[in-house]
Amino acid sequence: MEYIGQNSELWSFFNHMVNRYSLAATADQLAERYQIEISPAYKPNFNASPSQLLPVITNTGPQGLSFFYWGLAPQWAKNKTISEKLINARTELLGEKPVMKKNLMQRRCLVPADGFYGWKKVGKKAMIPHRLVLKNREVFSIAGLWDEYDDEQGESFHTFSIITVPSNELTAAISERMPVMIDKSQEKKWLSGDASEADLFGIMVSLAAGKMDAYTISPRVNSLNVNDAALLLPAPASDQYGNLSLFD
Fold first, then answer.
1. How far apart are CA 24 and CA 229, in angstroms?
2. Which of 15, 39, 136, 164 has the fewest CB atoms within 10 Å, i.e. is most exposed?
3. For 74-85, what is each residue's pLDDT tens digit?
4. Dihedral angle at the C-alpha atoms of 140, 24, 107, 172, nearest 10 degrees?
5. Pairing status of strand 140-150 against strand 127-134
């Protein structure tokens, strides 16, 4: 599958999606943050991408981390139509489509993160990568839905989708959509079996722009093969080709 930054023609496609995020926390930090057990399989990920196995906390297993494929299994990754449907779930559709509504009521998860990436279009072919974070730089939870499938051999595997909402004033300059960043006080309700549909839709809102920061980062993030802590550092505004820009 092609990703934004590798092909500028895909910018419009990905401008409507959230398709990268980071989670740099250590296992001990996550255990303290969520008061859960952390599997030895956990490791920080500075460039979390669709089709990777990534940590989530599900409503059916809130005592620890589960590892699900983001959006799609690797064998589906070249199908953009499937990818768009499975990577993100729009809040506007959750109450309209029966399958999505069923998952909303029965299969919810928290996706731990400490930032997500977006690409700001500054010219016909130029895009500048940004990282969006909480002002306090703490770990936050993205609202997600999970699902279960069988592969061709009949083996079960699990996937998750990130729920998105229209961008707030800060994020709108970079992308049309942003993830639902759940307030810490609402995380237990999101996973609760007693949460009503009204409760859940009350949680799925755009975080206030004043609680967030955004800054430019290195175009190294465009490569899915790059996954190191340096990706999180501020860098001069430059496009996907490494050309410095006057825009940020």
1. 8
2. 136
3. 555 455 455 555
4. 60
5. unpaired
Sequence letter at residue 60: T
Residues in the chain: 248
The HSE-up count of residue 10 (CA atoms within 13 Å, CB side) is 17
CA distance 162 to 18: 8
Cα separation, 138 vs 163, whole angstroms: 20
DSSP SS3 for 55: strand
pLDDT digits (tens, 9 = 90+) for 60-74: 999 999 999 998 665
Sign of CA dihedral 84, 87, 92, 93: positive
Checking 36-41 for CB contacts under 8 A at 24+ apart, the result is 36/62, 36/63, 36/64, 36/65, 37/63, 37/64, 37/65, 38/64, 38/65, 39/64, 39/65, 39/67, 41/67
